[in-house]
Write a structure and sequence with these properties.
By secondary structure, the protein is mostly beta strands. It has no helices and ten strands. The protein has strands at about 5, 15-25, 30-40, 45-50, 55-60, 75-80, 90-100, 105-110, 115-120, 125-130. Strands 1, 2, 3, 4, 5, 6, 7, 8, 9 and 10 form a ten-stranded mixed β-sheet that branches. It is globular, with a radius of gyration of 15 Å.
Length: about 140
């Protein structure tokens, strides 16, 4: 699969991550898309990361707000992960973009030895994030 990046990859390597949120999509009682949009704050600026097809989107944005929903059958929520160990209050050391078969991947490594691996499964249209410890900084 050929990989595309839409927007400028933000200049956030070697910067302190201040906040981290995930917008999630739910269907009744099931989380269908646990990482639909990822929001990060570096240097008092907000950035969002999201995917579609074989494309990674990076955008500057405003601080995320709790989505307003009108139905329980399908709704979105905003999860604040700013207290997750090893991400916020740590320096981002590396960003990697890749694709494998029908999956688009963005990995963010921090000086704490923690990495966040975002995998977008294009055929099923959902993104999962994996928290990885013991990554070489």
């Amino acid at each position: 699969m050929e990989l595309y990046i839409n927007g400028d990859v933000p200049d956030i390597v070697d910067k302190l991550c201040e906040q981290f949120y995930l917008e999630q999509i739910h269907d009744s009682q099931t989380t269908n898309d646990p990482a639909n949009v990822a929001y990060f704050r570096f240097g008092s600026k907000w950035f969002k990361l999201y995917f579609d097809s074989n494309t990674i989107f990076w955008r500057m944005c405003t601080e995320p707000t709790e989505p307003v929903n009108s139905d329980f059958s399908s709704y979105s929520s905003l999860a604040n992960f700013s207290e997750i160990k090893g991400v916020c209050r740590h320096i981002l050391t590396h960003i990697e973009h890749s694709a494998h078969n029908d999956t688009v991947i963005v990995s963010l490594a921090f000086d704490s030895g923690v990495a966040l691996k975002f995998e977008y499964f294009s055929l099923d249209d959902y993104t999962k994030v994996t928290y990885i410890q013991g990554v070489k900084a």
